[in-house]
């Protein structure tokens, strides 16, 4: 479930700020907020956050920390000390 969240939100944040849908979303906000939301640096910030989510997916695929439980870790440490 965690990996699904990371992939979906990462792609959403990477693509949506640069799509036509973003213009429709921005028009629903007051003028001051829409200027902020429509600025290039804010869109880039959201896209960078999406890239961070996708990098976390890659990190979890390489280093699966979700599969390590405290019991598994304790068992591995006891085997290493023998």
Protein architecture, described:
This protein has five helices and no strands. By secondary structure, it is mainly alpha-helical. Helix 1 runs antiparallel to helix 4. The longest helix has 23 residues. It is rod-shaped, with a radius of gyration of 20 Å. The mean pLDDT is 87.
Architecture blueprint of SSEs:
Blueprint: H1 2-15, H2 20-26, H3 31-37, H4 40-62, H5 70-81
Q: Whole-Å distance between the termini?
A: 36 Å
Strand content: under 5%
Rg over CA atoms: 20 Å
Helix-residue proportion: over 70%
Class computed from helices, strands and strand pairing: mainly alpha
Low-confidence regions: none
Largest sheet: none
Total count of strands = 0
Instruction: Please give the count of helices.
Output: 5
Mean pLDDT comes to 87
Q: How would the global form be characterised?
A: rod-shaped
Q: State the order of secondary-structure elements, H for helix, E for strand.
A: HHHHH
